[in-house]
C-alpha cells in the first residue's frame, strides 16, 4: 500500500490523487478504499461503475465518468474492458471504492493510446466506484 497513491476514500466523490515519489508498483495492484455491503460482482456480470483514470504521476484524467456525470456499464471478466479491470473488479461488493494500479501488460500494452495521452510504458491508475451489478 505504501507505493500506491493517496486518494480520497469517499464513495461517489470525484477522486483526487497524491502520488508517492518513485516508480509505479510492479504488477497489478488493487486496494479496497471503501468496502461496500451490496452484492458481490462476479465474472460475467454487467457492472455499473463510476471511474476516474490517470496515468501514474499525472493529475488530469484521460477518462472519467465522474467528469461526464454518467456512470458506465459493461460486462466484467469477459474481455469487454482492459485485463486489469477484468482481474480486479470481480470479487468486490457493490458500494466499494477501489484504487487500481494497472501496468501496461494489463492495460493498453506497448502501443498505449496516444490520442488519450497514454504511452506504451505507462502505468494506469483508476479509482472505481461499484454502483451496481446484475
From TrEMBL:
Highest taxon, organism lineage: Bacteria
Known catalytic reactions: [protein]-peptidylproline (omega=180) = [protein]-peptidylproline (omega=0)
UniProt domain PPIase FKBP-type: residue ranges: 44-134
Record keywords: Isomerase, Rotamase
Keyword set includes Isomerase: yes
One function term, GO molecular function aspect: peptidyl-prolyl cis-trans isomerase activity
Name of the top EC class for this enzyme: isomerase
InterPro entries associated with the record: FKBP2/11, PPIase_FKBP_dom
Catalytic activity, EC: 5.2.1.8
TM ranges: none
Family: Belongs to the FKBP-type PPIase family.
PANTHER family: PEPTIDYLPROLYL ISOMERASE
Protein name in UniProt: Peptidyl-prolyl cis-trans isomerase
Source organism of the structure: Bifidobacterium phasiani
